[in-house]
Amino acid sequence: MAGVSTPALAAxxxxxxxxxxxxxxxxxxxxxxTMIDELRSRTDAAFNVNLFVHQPPVYDAGRENAxxxxxxxxxxxxxxxxxxxxxxxxxxxxxDADKLAVLLEMAPPVVSFHFGLxxxxxxxxxxxxxxxxxxxxxxxxxxxMIEAAGLDAIxxxxxxxxxxxxxxxxxxxxxxxxxxxxxxxxxxxIRIPVIAAGGIMEGxxxxxxxxxxxxxxxxxxxxxxxxxxxxxxxxRSALMGPGAYRTxxxxxxxxxxxxxxxxxxxxLAEDRRPPxxxxxxxAGRALNLAATTAGETGFGxxxxxxxxxxxxxxxxxxxxxxxxxxxxxxxxxxxxxPSRDSCGH
Length: 345
Ligand SMILES: Cc1cc2nc3c(=O)[nH]c(=O)nc-3n(C[C@H](O)[C@H](O)[C@H](O)COP(=O)(O)O)c2cc1C
Description:
- This protein has 345 residues and is α/β, with parallel strands linked by helices.
- The chain has helices at residues 7-15, 29-42, 61-77, 97-106, 120-128, 140-148, 179-189, 203-211, 233-239, 279-293, 316-336; strands at 20-23, 47-52, 110-114, 132-137, 153-157, 163-164, 194-197, 216-218, 248-250, 258-260.
């Protein structure tokens, strides 16, 4: 969870028996190194480092200027000026040789890719360092590409998921498969292990994912309100408010479809093509800064999945322990016949 996960959060998850992850998709090579160093200092267990592998953005002055002009009245509402021009706030892993060098040097146990796959020579170099590699798929076609590229596991990300959809091409039609159908489809059609992601908040959801053929579940939203996360107070209180029941997908915050808590973005007509990811994010951040300075938190990038109302705010180690106990309850419940345990059996 780029911007939300921290080395402390990932270490707490790994130390409790999960596979903790840090997202370095939006950080440069030097900050990635610092985060991996800190994570290593906090755990001897395995962990994952996640990367953004989006197609490098195309700068289109006409589109960028039209976007800035369209947002201008919102900036005016907060007595602020929109940015004069938009910058891509970070590089794709596809063009970040420095970040690759850091990963090859530091050899984290696992790396995972979001939005696409690096070229074969990058995969071979990482493989030579004994790094396990996972990638997100939102469809069978993406999963087949991941399997053909020789990766070790697939994260099957359903439409319920919080944060950015891992779609390889944000301009292609999206079949928007839910986590249940996608997990089952990939478990049947793909030979490498499948990790289910999207809307999973409790042991019951993990049990369901395992029943569908997944080897594991990946949870994001469930951990956003842990004290170890980097989420700010506005994000934490929005998570516990009515917006949790109204998550929606939009491209307006970053340029790529992402699910966030119901907020002011969803009052805007969804008929515009924003600048490419991450140019649009530059505008989104500036708007959020202007709004929060004026006391309006409704333009925050408050990513969350459809399971947000099920969130339990507690330290990460306690959450992993709770999930483990619930999963065990579900398994016992399934074996011993109908009862009303935390799994609903
Ligand atoms: C706050 C937040 C940030 C996220 N950032 C990333 C990211 O940097 N890389 C990534 O692969 N997935 C990211 N995701 C998506 C998760 O990997 C995962 O697919 C999703 O959280 C699963 O759905 P859930 O949020 O309902 O558990 C993010 C999700 C959230 C909630």
